UniProtKB/TrEMBL annotation:
Organism: Candidatus Anoxymicrobium japonicum
CDD domains recorded: crotonase-like
Database matches in PROSITE patterns: ENOYL_COA_HYDRATASE
Protein's recorded name: Enoyl-CoA hydratase
Any Pfam family hit: ECH_1
Species lineage: Bacteria, Bacillati, Actinomycetota, Candidatus Geothermincolia, Candidatus Geothermincolales
UniProt catalytic activity: a (3S)-3-hydroxyacyl-CoA = a (2E)-enoyl-CoA + H2O; a 4-saturated-(3S)-3-hydroxyacyl-CoA = a (3E)-enoyl-CoA + H2O
Keywords: Lyase
Gene3D superfamilies the UniProt entry points to: 2-enoyl-CoA Hydratase, Chain A, domain 1 (3.90.226.10), Lyase 2-enoyl-coa Hydratase, Chain A, domain 2 (1.10.12.10)
Family under the similarity heading: Belongs to the enoyl-CoA hydratase/isomerase family.
């Protein structure tokens, strides 16, 4: 992993840091970025490392090659596995669940940039992100019924929580993929741009988020996740914790700077303190 806009391969994930945000790219273009245990584990480790980097305040998740994001789990690999191994791959405690948990636990927003297919497990990875941006080539769906598989309950809950039960039923009962503008209407994409503008728009949005007040961005993500019912542990008083974050932010130097910058009609210079 290197800074300054340069790229280095970490297993099957490409990591690039630039302008306060990082990109993580699935790097199996010859397999249409199909997901494997190794790739998902590399994704988890990369997110955990970036979470410890105070200079990274947004992450963009994307794919390499012409196929876009990812076609989902590597079915050729799954065909060689025993049923128990495939169950462990996608169920609680397995590589897919750990990667999704790492996306949701990342302290700052994670953006899915979807230029092409995001199917099955890859679709759930995108749904776990805070924002999703696509283009006219974007295709998303959950074809588990075409594969004879019942999708894990945790995944069904995530789709329903994010998209609503009606849209989730449409996805799973039809096993179809849906495209660009229709995905936006369904709430699966937050923004749709023409393909030529997709990367530029996504990176500029990531830069904007990275320039916002860190305490505010982290606090808002935690509050919204608590409302959505994500990562609410019985051992943690989330209401009190979030109230404390509100109070801390109001007392922060960043709050003083933000108000002063507004009054002086200039860009604020936030430090995260």
């Amino acid at each position: 992993m290197r800074d300054g806009g340069s790229v280095v391969e970490e297993s099957e994930i490409l990591v690039e840091k630039r302008d306060g945000f990082a990109t993580l790219a699935f790097n199996r273009p010859e397999k249409r970025n199909a997901l494997t245990a190794q790739l998902l584990t590399s994704l988890t480790l990369a997110l955990e490392e970036l979470a410890r980097d105070d200079g990274i305040r947004c992450v963009v998740l994307k794919g390499t090659g012409d196929s876009g994001f990812s076609v989902g789990m590597d079915l050729a690999d799954m065909a060689l596995n025993r049923p128990k191994e495939n169950y462990s791959l996608i169920s609680e405690g397995g590589p897919l669940r750990r990667a999704i948990a790492a996306i949701e636990a990342f302290p700052y927003p994670v953006i899915a940039m979807i230029n092409g297919y995001a199917m099955g497990a890859a679709c759930e990875l995108a749904i776990a992100c805070d924002l999703r941006i696509g283009c006219e080539r974007t295709r998303m769906g959950t074809p588990s019924a075409k594969l004879g598989i019942v999708y894990p309950l945790e995944g069904c809950e995530r789709f329903s929580r994010t998209l609503g039960l009606a849209t989730t039923r449409k996805l799973f009962h039809t096993a179809r993929y849906f495209e660009g503008d229709e995905l936006h209407k369904m709430g699966m994409l937050d923004f749709v741009r023409v393909e030529e503008e997709l990367e530029g728009f996504t990176f500029e949005l990531a830069r904007e988020i990275a320039m916002l007040a860190p305490l505010s961005v982290k606090g808002q993500k935690r509050a919204l996740d608590a409302i959505a019912g994500e990562r609410v542990s019985p051992d943690v008083d989330y209401v009190s914790a979030i109230h404390d974050m509100v109070a801390d932010s109001i007392r922060s130097a960043d709050a003083k700077e933000g108000i002063q910058a507004f009054l002086e009609r200039r860009d604020p210079r936030f430090t995260g303190h």
